Amino acid sequence: MSAALFGKICWVLLVAGWYVIRYPFERRAKRRRVQKTARGRAETVRMLISLSGLGILPGIFVATGFPRFATYSPSPVQTGLGVAAMIAALVLFRLTHKALGRMWSVSLDIREKHELVTSGIYRQVRHPMYTAFWTMALAQALLLPNLVAGLAGLVGFGTLYFLRVGPEEAMMEETFGQAYRDYRARTARLVPGIY
């Protein structure tokens, strides 16, 4: 099996793993009433851009090979690094969902009886879910040997991240006040000790 085909298979497994991890939390979240939301047109656009980069464009490439002009032959080392990033992304997804439990939301929502989660993986990082998505986008870039489809995840998710993290932190500060300011002061945004 070629490194390119193996990388495509691994990308499909990454997306399937992400869905398997997320699905039960999404079902539970629908049962809890949203008390406050920042959803709207801007959030929908951000989510669509991210979905295009992490799902639609790479899915088209895996299914059809389009766009062929941007395809190259990957090295086994590149694919191996992609598999390592894939595993790390799925582990991070699982840890974040487990720590959030009932507080999980796909968007900028404050649920009824919402609590500030500062345990588990959230003890050191405020946004480990975003860390997981950055790692997923990196895995995609390494696993899919196409300059458009492979890099689309970094661009798509990067757009969502940079346009959303500020409003999200403002919403958390407005909801939890000093508790969130203290939490923000002692944690990194994405990577402990770095950022």
Automatic annotation (TrEMBL):
Q: Which residues cross the membrane?
A: 6-25, 45-66, 78-95, 133-163
Keywords, ordered alphabetically: Membrane, Transmembrane, Transmembrane helix
The annotated topology with respect to the bilayer is: Multi-pass membrane protein
GO molecular function list: protein C-terminal S-isoprenylcysteine carboxyl O-methyltransferase activity
What this protein is called in its record is DUF1295 domain-containing protein
Cited InterPro entries:
ICMT_MeTrfase, Isoprenylcys_mtase
Q: Does the keyword DNA-binding apply?
A: no
Q: Which domain of life is it from?
A: Bacteria
Question: Would I find Transmembrane helix among this entry's keywords?
Answer: yes
The cellular location(s) given in this protein's UniProt record come to:
Membrane
